[in-house]
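Fold it.
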Amino acid sequence: MAHLLRLASIVALALAAVATPLSPRAAAGACANPSVVSSKTIGGVLFSTLECPDHAVKPSTSAVPDPVNVCGDVCNTFCGSFGPLPPITEDCAMIVDATQVFASTLPPTFIMQPGQTESLSYGTCEYYFTNNGTVPLEGCWTSFMQQASAAGTICFPPTQPINSLGACKAPDGTWELGAEHSLPLP
């Protein structure tokens, strides 16, 4: 009986490890050569587009599909640790405030190719949106900020245990967004 219990525990841990989504930093660790496609500072917030060439769309002779609009789509929230500490709440608030500043200078939506991540970082906080799928995605700044903020609220203090990642993943796994403690870009 004890062997069955141990075996069931091992199987449960293995399944949990496979099912746990990765933050873009963890995913970048699996990427051979992550790169910064573009980077600029707007309102004190570093706005970057990252790409994993291993997952990028390969040129083909067939037509490129239209981006799939995921604005406001439902996602499943999860908490995790990608470092020892959560981001500082005020740093995350600066990102949300900055999106209101650049909302007047950028279109309300953005396109992400497969393997790309949109990243906004300030101080200890980073908001990210990653296209894990095989077709381009169209995201909205407003729903991106709302969903990433909501994930942070659910996962960061005073919630216990302490988490450094609050994220939300599409039910089909094609995209993930969230808030996490920031790390230097590759």
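Residues 42 and 102 are 7 Å apart (CA to CA).
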